[in-house]
Each structure stands twice: as C-alpha cells, then as structure tokens.
From TrEMBL, chain A:
<feature type="transmembrane region" description="Helical">
    <location>
        <begin position="183"/>
        <end position="205"/>
    </location>
</feature>
<keyword id="KW-0813">Transport</keyword>
<feature type="transmembrane region" description="Helical">
    <location>
        <begin position="319"/>
        <end position="337"/>
    </location>
</feature>
<dbReference type="GO" id="GO:0005886">
    <property type="term" value="C:plasma membrane"/>
</dbReference>
<keyword id="KW-0762">Sugar transport</keyword>
<feature type="transmembrane region" description="Helical">
    <location>
        <begin position="265"/>
        <end position="284"/>
    </location>
</feature>
<dbReference type="GO" id="GO:0022857">
    <property type="term" value="F:transmembrane transporter activity"/>
</dbReference>
TrEMBL record, chain B:
<dbReference type="GO" id="GO:0005524">
    <property type="term" value="F:ATP binding"/>
</dbReference>
<dbReference type="GO" id="GO:0005886">
    <property type="term" value="C:plasma membrane"/>
</dbReference>
<dbReference type="InterPro" id="IPR003593">
    <property type="entry name" value="AAA+_ATPase"/>
</dbReference>
<dbReference type="InterPro" id="IPR017871">
    <property type="entry name" value="ABC_transporter-like_CS"/>
</dbReference>
<keyword id="KW-0472">Membrane</keyword>
<dbReference type="InterPro" id="IPR027417">
    <property type="entry name" value="P-loop_NTPase"/>
</dbReference>
<keyword id="KW-0677">Repeat</keyword>
TrEMBL record, chain C:
<keyword id="KW-0472">Membrane</keyword>
<dbReference type="GO" id="GO:0022857">
    <property type="term" value="F:transmembrane transporter activity"/>
</dbReference>
<feature type="transmembrane region" description="Helical">
    <location>
        <begin position="40"/>
        <end position="61"/>
    </location>
</feature>
<dbReference type="Pfam" id="PF02653">
    <property type="entry name" value="BPD_transp_2"/>
</dbReference>
<keyword id="KW-1003">Cell membrane</keyword>
<dbReference type="GO" id="GO:0005886">
    <property type="term" value="C:plasma membrane"/>
</dbReference>
<feature type="transmembrane region" description="Helical">
    <location>
        <begin position="214"/>
        <end position="236"/>
    </location>
</feature>
Amino acid sequence: MDSVKHKLIKFRNSKAFTPLLALIFLFIFNFFYIDGFFQIEIKDGRLFGYLIDILNRGAPLMIIAIGMTLVIATEGIDLSVGAVVAIAGAVAASLIGGEMQITPAGEIVYETVTTVPVAVLAALVVAAVFGMWNGFLVSSLKIPAIVATLILMVAGRGVAQLITKGQIITIYYEPYFVIGQGYLLGIPVAIFIVAAVLLIVGLLMRKTALGLFIESIGSNDVASRYIGIKEKQIKFIVYIFSAICAAIAGLIITSNVKAADANNAGLWMELDAILSVVMGGNSLQGGKFSIVSSVIGALVVQTLTTTVYAAGITPEVNLVIKGFVVLIIVILKSDIFKEKLNLLVQRGDRV
Amino acid sequence: MAAAEPIIKMAKIEKSFPGVKALQQVDFELAAGEIHGLMGENGAGKSTLIKVLTGVYKADSGQIFLDGRPIRIKSPEHAQKIGISTVYQEVNLCPNLSVAENIFIGREPIKNGRIDWKKIKNEAETVLDKFDLKIDVDRKLSFYSVAVQQMVAIARALIISAKVIILDEPTASLDTDETNKLFEVMRQLKSEGIAIIYITHFLNNVYEITDRITILRNGELIDTCLTESLPRIELISKMIGKDLEQIKEMENYSKNIGENNKVLLKAEGLASKGNIEAFDLELKEGEVLGLAGLLGAGRTEMVELLFGLNKADQGRIIIDGKEVKLNSPKDAVDYKIALCPENRKEAGLIGNLSVRENIILALQVTRGWFRKLSQARQLEIAQKYIDLINIKTPDTEQLVKNLSGGNQQKVVLARWLAINPDLLILDEPTKGIDIGTKADIQKLVLELASGEGMSVVFISSEIEEVTRISQRVVVLCDRAKIAELTGSEINQKEIMYRIAGGEA
Amino acid sequence: MINKILSTKNLSLKITITLFVVSFLICSLIYPGFFSWQNFFNLFIDNSFLLITAIGMTFVILTGGIDLSVGSVIAFVSMVIAFLLQQGLNAFIVIPLGVMIGGCFGAIMGLIIQKFKVQPFIVTLAGMFLIRGLSFLISVESISIKDPIFNRIANYHIPIAGGAISVNVVLSLVVLALGMYLAHFTKFGRTVYAIGGDEESAQLMGLKVGRTKVLVYTLNGLCSGLAGVAFSLYMLSGYGLHAEGLEMDSIASVVIGGTLLTGGSGFVFGTLFGVLIQGLIQTVIMFQGTLSSWWTKIFVGILLFVFIVLQKVISNMKTTKNEFNN
C-alpha cells in the first residue's frame, strides 16, 4: 500500500508527469471531437489510424528532441538542427540520386548511384562533421551556444541548397523509401528507428556514467571541473550527437516525401525540438534531464499538430498555440513566478 | 578626534536572514574626515552592515542618522544621492565604457539635448588629476589595472559629491605600490573632510591608514577603538573571539603524532606570481597540517597549486619521491589528492543532483564513464557515508541544494572519502556551519589521519580550531609562508603573534 | 600611424567598412555596369526594411539580449496593413497603427523578459511562433495592396545624383540618424551600453536597468513595426510568409557591423555597413550570374563566423594588454 503511494508520489514529481498529463488531455479532447481517433485498423497487414500517424509523423521530431535534450542538459542549445536536417537529406538524396527508366519491354526500372547504406552513412558522417564544428565553437572557443549554432543555422541551409544545386531532388530509388515509409511487422519503420535511438541513448545515459557527467556539468560546470570531469570533451560530444540525431530525422523526412527540399526540410524544427524538451519538463538551465519525457513532449507537439489538422482548423494556428504554450511554460517555470506563488501561499496560510 | 556630531550614526541595527542573525544591536559611528576601519572574520556582519547603510538591505530595526537627522535609505541609488558611495573589491563599474563615462554615467551633463562629451572628458581629467593619475580617459576601463579602476570608482563617488565613501577590500588585488597610491588618495580625501569606511583583512594596511577601528564578530559589535591605542594582538583576539587570558590558559595537546611518518608529498619552492610567494612544504602520512592566517593570506592559493587548479610558475611537486606535473584537477585526483573548496556552493556542490550522485561522482570519475557503478553499489556507498559521517538527509535521493550548510559540507567530504584519497585538502570546511557539525568534522579529520593514515591539510580562519587538530601548523601572511610551527609552539597565542608579524 | 589604424578601438568596425569599400571597388572593376550611383542606391532601396529592423536589433544586442521575433512582426504588420487597407481604412491611419503594433509586441516580450527573468531568446522564440501564426489568422493567402495613397507613397521616387531613391530609403536613414543619436548622445543609450557591459554593476551604479531593458525591446518592436511598413511599401502586399528568416539577416547585420553579440560594445553606424555588405553579396551574386542565390546564405554564415571569432580575438587582445599607466 505504502509503496504504491510512494510510487505515485515519485511519478507525480517525475519530469514525465506534466507532458503525460498534457498528452492525456489532448487525447480526451480528440476522443470527443475527432471521429475514430482511437481506432486502429489493419489494412494489408499494416496498422493505420491517428495514433499510428502521430507516432509515425512525430518520429523525426522525437529523434531531434533526444539530441536536443542532451545539449540543453549541458546548459547549451542547438539552433542548427533544422539546417542539419536539410543538409543530411540533401547529401543522402544526391548520393542516391537515381533515375526512373523504362526498359524497351515497358518495365519500370529504378537506378541508383550508390547503395542505401552508403548514402545513409555519408549523411550521418557529414552531419557529425557539422556537429563537431558546433562543438568546437562552444567547448574550445567558448562562444555562447546560441551564437555558435546560429552560424550553422544561417549558413547550413545555404550548404544544403549548394548540395542540391537549388533543386528539389526527387528520389526514385525504392529501397530508400523503407526508412520513412516502410512497415515492419505492420508498424512503420520510423517508429522502430525512434525506439532504437531511444534505446541506445537510454542505455548510454543510464548504464554508463555519461548521463551523470552531463547532468553534473549542466548543474555546475565549475564544481564538475573540481571533481575532475572533462567538461570540454563531453560538451563536444553532445553537439556531435545532436547533429547525428538531426541527420537521422533528415533521412526519415526525405524518405517519407521522396525528395530532398533544402529550403523546407526541417524548417522550424529547432523550435519544435526546443519546445518538446521544455514541455518534457527539462530545464533550459541544464542539469537533470529525461529523454523519455522529451520524447513525450515531442508527441504532445505532434498530437497538437495532428489535432489541428484533423479538426480542420487552419494549420497555421499551430504556430500560435505552440508559441503561447512555450511562453506559459517558461513563465510558470521561472524562479520569480515560483517565488511570488510561494508568497501568495504563505499569505494564504497566515490568513 | 571628531568631537562634533558624527556624519553617520547607526543605532541598534538588527538584521536577520532565515536562520541567521546577521546583525544584533549594532551601533556604528563615522565622523567627517576620518578613516574608519571595519574588521571581522567572514560572517562577522561587515558586509551586512554596509549593505544596510547603502540601502541594499532594509534593517529589521534600528535607526540611521545622517548629520544628526534620522533617515531611511531606500536603495543604492538613494544612498548615492545622499552622498554615500561604495567602491567594491570587484570594481563595480562597466568595463566596456570609457574611464570618463564610468565616472559620469547616470549623471551626464546635457547640452542642446545631447550628452556633453567634451565636458565629461575635461571634468574626468580634472578629478583624476587630483589623484595624480594622468591617463587617457577615453580608453575603455578594462584597459587599465584594477588599481586604476578603483581610483576611477572613487572618482565616480566624488563626482556624485560623496560625503561618505566605503571601500570594501580595495587592496585585496593590489601590489604594494598600488596600495600606497590608493592610500595617498585616501589621505587626500580625508583632508577634504570626507569620511571613509575601510574594510580589509590586511592588518598592516589597517594600522597604516585608519584612525579608528570597529570590530564585529558573529553579527555583534565587539568594540570601536582608536587605532593607535589598540595593540595588534588585541585586535586579532577581538576578531576571533578569544581573550588573551583565555588563550594563555589553553592547554596544549600532544603534538608528536606523525613525526616519524613517511613523506607523501613534497613541494619545493613552489610559487605562482601574484598569488603566493615561493614556499616549501612537506606532507606526511597520518598527519594533519593546519594552515593558519587571515583571509587573503594566501591559504587557498597555496592549496590550489597542490590540486592543479592553478599552474605554478616555479618550483616542483614531488609525490612518493617522483616529480609530478599537476595540470588539472583530474591529474590531482589521479594521484589521489582531494580538495574540498572554500566556496562550497560555486565549486563544491552539484546542487541539482541528489545526495547519492554527489557522493559517488568523484569515485565514478576515477573509474571513467564506461564502468558505471551499479545503482545498488551507489546506494550502498551513499548510505555508508551518510551513516559514517552522520549526514542528515531524508534519503539518498534528496537534492543536495535542499540540505543545510553543514550537511552539504559533509556530502562534499563524503564524495572525496569515497575515493579513499592519500591527501585530503580541506579549505574552510567548517565555515558557516553549526557547532555540532563542526565538532563532527573535526573529529572525523583526526580519525582519518590517525586511523587511516591519510594526510590532511586543514585550512581554517578559526585559529583555535587549527590548534586543536593539527600536528603541524604553517602560518601565512600577505601571500607568503612565514612560519612553520610544531609541538608546543602550536597554540593560539603563538600563531597570532606570528600573524601580527611578531609584534605585540 | 599604423599603430593608430590598427588600434583595437573600433577595429571591428574599421574592418567592416574597409571590407565594404574594397569589395564594392573590386566588383566595380570586375563587372561592367556595376559602378553606378543607382546601383549603390539600390543597395539601400532593397534593404531599407532590413536596416530599420537591424537598428532596433543593435540596441537589443548591445544590452546582451537577442530578439528572434522581428521577421514575424514584420510579416504580421504587413498583413494588418494589407488587410485594413483592403477594408478601406485610410493609409495615414494604418501606417502609424502598424508601427504601434510592433511596439506593443516588443513591450510585452520585454516585460516578460524583465519581470520573470527569462532568457530573451526563448521568449522571443515563442513570440516568433505566435506572431507569425497570428498573421495567418488574418488570412492564409497573400493580400495585395491596391490602396492608391499607399501605392503612391511606394512608387514615389526622390531623384538624387542622377539616380533615385524611394521613401523607404529616407525612412531608414532617418531611423539610422535617430538610432545614432539615441545610442551615443542620450542617457538611455549609455545605459544600454552599461547594461551590456555589466548588468549587475549598472544596477549598483544606480542606473535604471529594468526600465531600460523593457524600453529596448519596445524600441526594437517599434523598429520592426516600421520595418513592416517599409516591407509593405516594398512588396505592396501582406503575407504571413513574408520576411521569413529576416531575424537572422538582422542579427548578422548587427554582428558584421561590429557589435559584440555578448553586448556592451558596438555602433549603430556599423549596422548600416552590416546591412550594405549583405546587400552587396546579393547584388554580386545577381551580377555574376552563374553563382546561385544560396551562396548568399553561405557567405553570410562565413562572415558571421569570421566576425564572431574576430570579436573573440580582439577582446582577448584587450585583456592581455592591461597595464598600470601612470
């Protein structure tokens, strides 16, 4: 009995509580206002439905949010993820290239320049290099993270356009579509990718001391240095990791839309990712973090989007809602607000 | 001396913070044209008193009189307006603005709707001329040394037409020449009838420049005396709170333990320019070495060299007979050296992590990030130290920032005990800690040395504490090692005589 | 002499101006027809809205803050103007209204930043979302402006030196002059610098830090509002997707113009050259013909990097030069 209560209290205080509450609230709303929101159908051995759709479409955001969580945990920020999404997509698409050809027999044949693994690997490596760039600026040159990553945010899209030569590269090579459109055991492959990233990062953070060191740096980097933690090295790593996450998201997106659009791929993604992390109860001041609650935060953001679409409201309303939500969360979480609230409570007690 | 009405009179000032009585019934008087030293160890209430006077804090009770009239000082801005200006040790000016602008900002002369830059420049030069300081006032403040910056801050105070100038540790980062220059300026101001409150830890400076000295201890006024009639030894005993009689009566403990023990670490001619002059030091296994000296005497600077936080520019460190280079704390930790820093909050605690995580962090660092301690092992270690040194916390998962100061200190201590160091350096481990915890920590230190054979360096501003637990005491003064005491020499009286420069 | 030129004072600004002049001359040599007054004026005509908003941004960055919402504010203002004109409101009412709207957004964000002590980047990031979304609430489509008065203002050209400039250019230059006056000759401006240098000290020196910070964001809002008007005059339409990414161009202008991103140092005048250099890059790419438009972004990114590192180097030079000059 006691342990159940204890567990409940523990859950109440966990970071995942608020985003889960928001998610449940949205679900209840959708249950009443969107027909068949909870319905999951099986067509051709594949699962369909709003819930699957949210998971599937939210995959890129969830992955980026995982990377962003680690960066924010070190008291940093990565504004360049949207640009890296575009770059990775551009690299992969231009390597896959491919053309549709019709053989004399009337058969349609797709050709590719390189194989999928090569293209994927190349995209990840290129992204990692850009991540090193960010990491170098932040950890070695000690440039504030907002500024350092702003550079790549500005120039990154230009680089992506350079790779695609300003065109939208259409991909015809079918095996590549597996990443963003494929199904495995009836479930979209993208969901498996999220699960894999989550699992790997989760293991890395909880089964090694990396997570603890990151939290230590984010909470107090001077004291961390006094203990002997190599704070420079770890900061460098998280930016690389964030870029790789963005690249994976970029691969999913290009595969999903069968094209690399340097202008629009990953647009506003950095904002959504930051929103997800903040919504997940993680502090922008760094320190303790939870990737799971960031992922839930990303799901909330995606559910919001899906809800707006499904309800037939202008999708742009999304922006207003997101902006508003961020402002409210940030104000509610500010120390000043908490202080004032405490004062009010105390006054109430006295009365 | 100033028989007339004092320019400032503070009567029965009380100020409490949650859990601390920072000031209790403190009276303070300042006469025009006097330089008044304000002395006391950390936590004595000097800065609280100043902050009340300058409107940063509001006193809980008591009154302030300016020229005999009661006044309420609402804010630093208001204090400046009525002629009370403060010059802080970490010069509170804007480094990015020019010298001239720093003197005038907030009260710039306006001509034709524009700031009159010409006038600002001329007047800034005039006022600095008074200090015999001929510098380019158009240059950014950050271009100049701290000494110049302090003069600029004083000039700013003068332009505001200050009647009272408060100098908070102005000489802490100045060399002798710069200090002399500052004193000249102070004497000049004094001759113009300006009253100066001078806060410092440097005894020589106090005796050189002040007319009167007020001593605070634990938030209480101890005494205000004329400088010339207050012997140094008496000043020190008033500051640290032990009567001379009491000191004489104090018995000596046996100080012979560890005499023949093996040498663990040896420092030869170690020095860092501007921080600590060259010193030799020998640390033996199973021995507690006390570092005594007033704040700013170079105690922290000395141990920073031993922990790789600062690089020595001369001398060498020898551990177990081999010369080693300590370039970072990580290097020191690898040699099993541990340091509990003085500023616990900034450099010790990881506030947002739990007690458990804080305790196991150092051990985890020595294991590297890949071999993580299992959750069960972490809990076991945390619990072991919570029990061993009696850390009062609801559970292992409590965030460290929610513990009391004493228990926070124990957590930092536990963190290092967990790596079982050969050398444990404790910088003011008992500062701002309740009596009970203090005794706990002292006892623990003695046990660690005699029982575990650990070598401990113990820094404290409380000389009594140092004498109680050290087998050897190094005395520091003005950033240099001035004496090493052993056996029966280790008593408060002797240490105070040494700090006072052998003068009584 | 060489020492004086290379002195660190204003070094970043000197480099920017030199860079602009030299690049303009080199381009004039390479591309026939490049060097003309009109081509020079075009730099101003095509970037006047950027200049206006970048001047507001200069103040924000001087305090050590940042405002990511300016592009959205411009889009929203263009939308409001286009919508209200479509409804038949008089242009002389609509234009000041547009400016005021910008000011209100700025003031609200400034108040949140100051009162709740939240990092400016997150507040303005949220503002960026929210305000762009609001403009879509008016209409998802682009609304073209057919109001005759507005069109006349937009098409009015002031002949000068064999070429002509638009009303926007005059507007932006007036803002520039006002900005320079505010920054260098008023107590408000100097407080802005003081805050950027050391906020805590500024407070202890008795300066009105809180009020100034809110005013700075309000001022930037007003500038963005005015830039929205200029943008409407330039495009003759209102659209929620207008001025996308302009906040980055604006920040880049300020930094390239020699203002320290961490605050406390810089010149409003420098921002003009930050804008002109970006304009020049675009013009060159247009003249060159074979270079594609995305090179603009890459060049701006490279410039941004170079100038940020330059700032680091310069500030390091200064700290090592501490001497006791007697």
